[in-house]
Amino acid sequence: MAVSQIITQIKTEPQPLYLVVGRSDYWENQILQNVQQLIPAEERTMNFATYDLEETTLGDALNDAQSVPFFGERRVVVIQNAAFLTGAKGKTTSQQELTDLEAYLQNPSPATVLVVFAPFEKLDNRKKITKHLKNKATVIDLNTISERETTNFVRQFIQKQDYQIEADALADLFARTQGDLALIMNELQKLFLLCRSDRMITEQAVDQLVAKSTTQNVFDLSDDLLAGKTNAAIQFYHELVAQREDPIKINALLESQFRLLLQVKILQQHGQSQSHMAQTLKVHPYRIKVASRMINRFSIQSLERAFLALVEIEHKLKSSTVNPELLFEMFAIQISQKNT
């Protein structure tokens, strides 16, 4: 079941236990808002509580979960940063607290909705408590949300607002936000205002309203380099420097991008899927998709040479007075003379 469907069900059929795995600012906020709304506003001070396990104990949260609602029908208890479900080192959760949690899972309070947030890439499934919680709770896995699911959600959201969006505009919106759903939803509010007359979001509207970050500009710069548009890449670099972008920062972002391209190329040759790559490399699936498209014409060796050249440029930028724009021009020419 899609994450959006599970969240919709919270409103009408809340379950006693939820386990939220992974990180997504937008979906985490949606889950929190919906479980909070299970409690009438006037009762929330008494019957809604959040426990961050980096600051408090699991025992405190369990005591609250087992308490009878105070002048109300339901209590909601939220546990944040449940590191005890992973192998990560954090604030220690005692064995007695884990035993108490196992007992609670066997017989959860019928008047309590307990939501456990584990904002981690993966859980330690060897642990008894992890297996037990996953078996008893409704699991919302944010790590498995595909780009297609996010795209469909955004498109449906736009349609529900009685708007339409051009295919190129949607692709550009994803590119400029790096597929971050929270950013996309924020930008859509501005786009709705701009396009309210004909209710059609165009690529021109996205270009006008959604600013490119330095990171996105560097991704575009990488795209020009890899597409063989050497003159365009050099001109773009000059423009970024003229806009007072730090050459060291630009180079660091280029290093990061070429490192990702090299990693994707290697994993691709080992037969990994794009979704698996995203989990392995801990980057958004959209970046993997774009990287996979960009590297088709390049060998591992040529990408490795480009990455090492950027490492050398970083050293020169930090230890000499060589003109950064000259260094980049030489690098761009080197890329254009690549061996595929």
Concise description?
This protein is α/β, with parallel strands linked by helices. The chain is built from 17 helices and seven strands. The strands form two sheets. Strands 2-3-4-1-5 form a five-stranded parallel sheet, sandwiched between helices. A two-stranded parallel sheet has the order 6-7.
Description:
It catalyses: DNA(n) + a 2'-deoxyribonucleoside 5'-triphosphate = DNA(n+1) + diphosphate. Belongs to the DNA polymerase HolA subunit family. The protein is of the alpha/beta class. 59% of the residues lie in helices and 9% in strands. The chain has helices at residues 3-12, 25-36, 44-47, 58-65, 95-106, 128-136, 147-160, 167-177, 181-194, 203-209, 214-226, 230-242, 247-269, 274-281, 285-294, 300-319, 324-336, and strands spanning 17-21, 48-52, 75-80, 112-118, 138-141, 164-165, 200-201. The strands form two sheets. The chain has a five-stranded parallel beta sheet, with helices on both faces. Helix 4 links the parallel strand 2 and strand 3 (75-80). Helix 5 packs parallel to helix 6 (128-136), helix 11 packs antiparallel against helix 12 (230-242) and helix 12 (230-242) packs antiparallel against helix 17 (324-336). The longest helix has 23 residues, at 247-269. It is globular, with a radius of gyration of 24 Å. It starts with a helix and ends with a helix. The mean pLDDT is 91.
